[in-house]
From TrEMBL:
Any one of the GO CC terms: membrane
Gene Ontology molecular function: beta-1,4-mannosylglycoprotein 4-beta-N-acetylglucosaminyltransferase activity
Name listed for the protein in its UniProt record: Uncharacterized protein
Record keyword Membrane present: yes
GO biological process: N-acetylglucosamine metabolic process
UniProt keyword annotations, A-Z: Coiled coil, Membrane, Transmembrane, Transmembrane helix
Stretches the record annotates as Disordered: 48-95
Length: 440
């Protein structure tokens, strides 16, 4: 990303792009998506390879949910084969060295050196490594993913939203054009709390949800944020409870947080135990990693229903992964405007604008097929009746929420991204490929 160029947007977006170009990496949101601009910071420039980067979005390793009701035909589990995994002899030739004490690293280079030292020289060898080795790898990353945010959040810079236009033509398939007598409360449900980028994404998300109330003098509703986490990653590796350790960062929201410790769910714990016992041959075939993800989501939804019987049935449930950040504007519309009778109580599919690497890549208009359709809005009543929600529903059979948010697949520092992929269900794309130095 060394070569730079000006934003390649049409004149009509010039103003917007200028804005984008001064908004900080972490907290910038794009207006075209009706996402609320909440923070200002360093100048930004679009990377030259924007088109390629965005098309890379389609090859991302996001896994399909296991609990989905109506899977998209193309939403198959990605093949977890990797060139390097096809040559396992190379990985198994030398025994892996497990350090007796995990060294406290300062830089990412130190992590990579340590990985080489341990004999982990390819993404495949890390994926197939035994549990005790993977635990060490996860631990190595801790100093890098538990860092403070690069810039503090400036609440005073939040720009309040205008009152919503319930007659907006882009919404006429969903809304009947009138306002509800009172705004709905929001119940935000996410899963998959990992390390660095997830905490940043959570912070972004909570303020974005809060901004959806900013046009109201006296909102009169109390939102609920359901945050779940586990002492294990999705591949069964031991990890810290990142949210618990950094809860002070979220102090404004804590009174409204429903914190769920996933390890309290017996079905989930059994699945993690199974993952930790898994031999590398099983891992190679894909193992059970996707079921941990599915069981986790079910556990969260069930616990929410159980613990919060007083949340009204008409509350708006937002259900998406942490890297799918809903837009304040879209939440505002669904809070305040009346849905058509035919729209029922959802599920309404979130259409996210893909910004795989950072918030700087959002200038281009995209076709519908380039959008990311995952995550849903529904009501609490709907969730209670169905007892579960899927992340993906059939986009031809269900209503779609336009400009519902953004999808930030690989956002964060390099260490953050490594860490996310390390835990991710389909972590075949774990990069880089550390190699021993030539003179070693
Ligand atoms: C969220 O926004 C509303 C209205 O803008 C405000 O009254 C409330 O204090 C905010 N909540 C938090 C947790 O900051
Ligand atoms: C987990 O379970 C324990 C004991 O059953 C309970 O006391 C605790 O509140 C639960 N914690 C969370 C965060 O769910």
């Amino acid at each position: 990303m060394s070569r730079r160029r000006a934003c390649a947007c049409g004149y009509r977006w010039l103003l917007l792009c200028l804005l984008i170009c001064i908004v900080s990496t972490l907290l910038l949101m794009n207006d075209q998506l009706d996402v609320h601009v909440t923070n200002l910071g360093t100048p930004l420039v679009l990377p030259e390879e924007e088109a390629d980067e965005v098309s890379a979005e389609r090859a991302e390793p996001d896994s399909p949910p296991v609990v989905e009701e109506e899977p998209e035909p193309e939403a198959k589990a990605p093949s977890i084969q990797d060139e390097e995994e096809l040559a396992p002899e190379q990985a198994t030739e030398k025994p892996l060295l497990i350090p007796r004490e995990v060294p406290a690293v300062k830089t990412l280079l130190d992590v990579y050196k340590e990985l080489c030292h341990m004999g982990l020289t390819s993404p495949g060898s890390i994926r197939l490594a035994p549990t005790e080795v993977r635990d060490v790898v996860v631990k190595l990353y801790q100093p890098l993913v538990e860092r403070q945010p690069p810039a503090p959040f400036h609440r005073e810079r939040m720009v309040p939203l205008k009152p919503p236009d319930c007659k907006d033509p882009a919404w006429k398939h969903l809304l009947d054009g009138t306002r509800r007598s009172a705004p709905r409360a929001v119940v935000d449900v996410t899963t998959g709390m990992g390390g660095g980028p997830e905490l940043d994404l959570l912070e972004l998300r909570l303020w974005e949800i809060n901004a959806s109330l900013s046009h109201l003098k006296n909102p009169g509703v109390k939102d609920l944020y359901v945050i779940s986490e586990s002492a294990y990653g999705l591949r069964g590796d031991v990890k810290p409870l990142h949210f618990t350790r950094q809860r002070q960062r979220f102090k404004d929201f804590l009174p409204q947080v429903e914190h769920i410790l996933l390890d309290n769910c017996s079905k989930y714990s059994r699945e993690i135990e199974k993952l930790r016992q898994e031999k590398s041959t099983k891992r190679k075939k894909g193992g059970t990693m996707f079921s941990a993800e599915g069981i986790q989501r079910l556990c969260v939804l069930k616990t929410l229903i159980q613990r919060r019987p007083t949340v009204p049935d008409d509350a708006l449930v937002i259900f998406s992964d942490l890297d799918e950040v809903p837009s304040a504007k879209a939440i505002q519309m669904l809070r305040v405007c009346q849905p058509r009778a035919a729209a029922k109580e959802g599920p309404w599919i979130q259409m996210h604008y893909p910004m795989p690497y950072n918030l700087r890549v959002g200038c281009k208009r995209k076709t519908k097929s380039q959008m990311h359709f995952q995550g849903v809005f529904a009501t609490m009543g709907f969730l209670r009746r169905k007892k579960s929600l899927a992340l993906r529903y059939n986009i031809r059979k269900n209503l779609i929420v336009p400009n519902a948010g953004i999808h930030l697949t690989y956002v964060g520092s390099r260490a953050d991204v490594d860490y996310k992929l390390l835990h991710h269900g389909a972590a075949r794309s774990w990069r880089p490929k550390p190699r021993p130095p030539a003179n070693a």
